[in-house]
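Researcher: Next entry in the queue.
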Amino acid sequence: MTGILDLLNSDTGKAIISGVAGSTGQDTNKTSSVLTMALPVLMKAMQRNAATPQGAESLKSALNKHDGGILDNLGDLFNGGVNSDVLQDGNKILGHVLGSKQQGVEKVIGQKAGMDTSAVADILKTAAPILMGLLGKQSRQENINNAGDLNGLLGGLLGGNSAQKEQSFLEQILDADGDGSIVDDVAGMILGNVGNSQQKSGGLLGGLLGGVFGKK
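Model: Structure for this entry, 216 residues:
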């Protein structure tokens, strides 16, 4: 299965990045960096939420409402700016997926991308319905019907572009208390491996996270 970051590098992905940047008034390169870091975190959070029957049913219900049509009309979506209904939907998605970790995640990503937290929030509110549309479309194509299938779908999209140690960090950022302090100490060293040498940052990961978070 194609990974989510591979999809961002596709023509459709580039159109999404460009459209989100234009709609939020942000630099395209920084917007790309934010989405490259944020989308795997959002998907990992969804995967964790779907680990319970109630969470899986909630996610499946949400995906049923996002049929992927938003991807077929990107020109209309971004032409003149994204409308308030889409942004409200995005805000609800973020709140449901990240919960109390939302501000902490936005802060860490903003610090790494060199962008204000409020700008990161705007980008994620715009991108979240598009991500849900992508997942909803994929869910229909693969006839996803249960929690195991959902986990496989999300894991496949994550596993297509992330090493196991990077997956561990996605867990750590979501398990953090959200104050942006300890998380930020390691974010710059590890989140930066997207697009850089996997081995260079991956070698830091085990000991660094083990020491800071008390986990192996």
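Model: Residues 178-216 have pLDDT under 50 and may be disordered.
Researcher: Noted, moving on.
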